[in-house]
Each structure stands twice: as structure tokens, then as C-alpha cells.
From TrEMBL:
It comes from the Bacteria. One of its GO terms (cellular component) is plasma membrane. The chain crosses the membrane at residues 51-69, 81-101, 107-127, 134-152, 182-204, 210-228, 240-259, 265-283. It comes from Asaccharospora irregularis DSM 2635. This is Probable membrane transporter protein.
Length: 295
């Protein structure tokens, strides 16, 4: 069953690649490619997907770095860009981690399926939201992500749960399916699935290691589906997405096969601070727009 899932990863990303390639080629011929730095976006992709492979997540750090480097990705196009840009690197991660970490097949497939369905529903809603609402949703979600990462940090360790199980059954399986459905929908708003999925898996009594194939597999299946919708709506930054995707794959491979040890506790603290700051800036922008509209 797991081999079938891996086959679906490849099939989904192949279809996504065709859709992305056609849209990029058409936009290039029409002169609709954005004026963005390929080098800066490439660095962003390498850095974020490198640490994504280690479990930190790529969405929130990408938002933060793109703001710092002034990549000129509009907040309205940010959710679509995050999904399109990180689709291929995440599929590579999923192929690696579903091979090296064992998960009970029924748990893996049902949680992944739930996330895919959630993403399909969510993408249609998010792609048509105005910029202020997106800023508000992303700002609140980033704040929640920062809190979850803080509570699950090894030095804090206030997250309930934990265990050694590699699968779920009964009520816990249903809870996991519902939870991943919601997380899949939120992914389309630019809200990373990793931190909340890791927290959910841990809370349901599973081994923390099992979170990797579940969260990466979920993203590998849902992101091509959600991204196809964003591409159809033209709700993403094409040039930045291409650069992040290409360099992100390199970051994934280096992190997965060459890196043996990093001061992850310190890095997670830095990521939490960056995410919290980005949340603040998003909410500040949304509030400012609201005040202007009310005048």
C-alpha cells in the first residue's frame, strides 16, 4: 500500500509539473513574468527546504525571508506561491521519508487522503480572498504556529501526549483524519502543516519520528492539487516559484543525505522568533488596511 502511495506522489507531481510548465511558458511568451531576483528566491528555496527536511517547516520561514530580502511577492499571491514553489521539494522529501521511516499503512493513507480533500476545498476559497483577509488569516496562523513550536521545543516540552505507536485506530484514527483534513485546508492559506501536524501526531500518542512521513506525505499529495488551482487562478509569483523549487530540491537532498548533526534546539528558537515577528507584521498590515477602509 505504501508503494502505491509513493507511486501517486510521482504521478501527482508529474501532472503538476506539466501544468506549471505550460503556465510559465505561456506567461513568458506574453511577457507576464514578474521582475524578481532569481538568486534571492533561489537562496530562499535552498535555505527553507533544507530546514524543512529537518522538520522545521518551509512556509513560515519563506514568508519571513521573502520579506527580509524584498522579493516583492504580494501578500495576496503569497499562499499560492508557497504551495507552488515548495511542491516538488516536498515530494522529494516524502519519497525519502516514507522509505526510511515505517508507518502503519492505513494510518498513512487515510491521513494523507484527508489532507488532500481539505486542500482541494481550501484552495478554491483562498485564491479568491482579498489581500487583507489573507494577511489576517496568515498572521493569526503564524502566531499559532509559533506557539505550537514553542510548546513542543525540547527545552519547554509542554505539549501533552507522546508515545511509540506507529499507527492509529478507532477514535484516535478518526481524530487524526479530521485534524489532517483541517490542516490540509489551512495549507492553502499559506499555513505550514508541519508544526501542527507534528503536534497532533504527538498528542495522539504516536512516535515523533512518524510525523515526518505523515506530514511530508500529506504535503506531497495535497500541494500538487492545491497548486494546480492556484496556477489556474494565476494567484502566485511565477519566477520566484521556479527559483525556490529548483534550489529547494538541492537543499532537500543535502539535508537528507549529507547533514548528520545541527544545533536544532537553537535553530528552532530562531525560527520561532522569526515566525512571531512575521505574524506581527502581517497582522499590522491587515489592521492598517482596515483602518484606511473605515475612514
Amino acid at each position: 500500500m505504501v508503494n502505491i502511495v509513493r507511486g501517486l506522489f510521482v504521478a501527482f507531481v508529474a501532472v503538476f509539473g506539466i501544468i506549471f510548465g505550460k503556465d510559465y511558458s505561456k506567461a513568458a511568451k506574453e511577457g507576464n513574468i514578474e521582475e524578481q531576483s532569481f538568486a534571492k528566491a533561489g537562496f530562499t528555496g535552498f535555505f527553507t527546504d533544507f530546514f524543512d527536511t529537518l522538520g522545521i517547516g518551509s512556509f513560515a520561514p519563506t514568508v519571513a525571508i521573502s520579506k527580509m530580502l524584498k522579493l516583492n511577492i504580494s501578500d495576496k499571491h503569497m499562499p499560492g506561491t508557497l504551495n507552488v514553489a515548495h511542491t516538488i521539494p516536498v515530494v522529494v522529501e516524502a519519497l525519502i521519508f516514507t522509505t526510511v521511516i515505517k508507518v502503519e499503512p492505513l494510518t498513512l493513507t487515510t491521513l494523507i487522503a484527508a489532507a488532500v480533500i481539505g486542500s482541494y476545498i481550501g484552495a478554491g476559497i483562498i485564491s479568491n480572498m482579498d489581500e487583507r483577509k489573507i494577511q489576517l488569516v496568515m498572521g493569526l496562523a503564524l502566531a499559532a504556529t509559533a506557539v505550537l513550536m514553542f510548546l513542543s521545543h525540547p527545552k519547554i516540552d509542554l505539549m501533552p501526549g507522546g508515545g511509540t505507536a506507529t499507527g492509529l485506530a478507532g477514535g484516535k484514527l478518526i481524530a487524526g483524519i479530521v485534524g489532517n483534513f483541517i490542516l490540509g485546508a489551512l495549507m492553502t492559506a499559506g499555513i505550514g502543516l508541519y508544526a501542527p501536524c507534528m503536534a497532533m501526531v504527538y498528542f495522539l500518542g504516536m512516535s515523533p519520528d512518524v510525523a515526518f512521513p505523515i506530514m511530508m506525505g500529506s504535503c506531497a499529495m495535497l500541494m500538487p492539487v492545491a497548486s494546480a488551482k492556484f496556477i489556474k487562478e494565476g494567484a502566485y509569483a511565477r519566477k520566484a516559484s521556479l527559483a525556490i523549487a529548483v534550489c529547494g530540491v538541492v537543499g532537500v537532498l543535502i539535508a537528507a543525505y549529507l547533514v548528520k548533526s545541527l544545533p536544532m534546539d537553537i535553530l528552532k528558537v530562531l525560527v520561532i522568533l522569526v515566525i512571531a515577528y512575521t505574524s506581527y507584521t502581517m497582522l499590522k498590515s491587515a489592521t492598517k488596511k482596515q483602518n484606511i477602509e473605515n475612514k
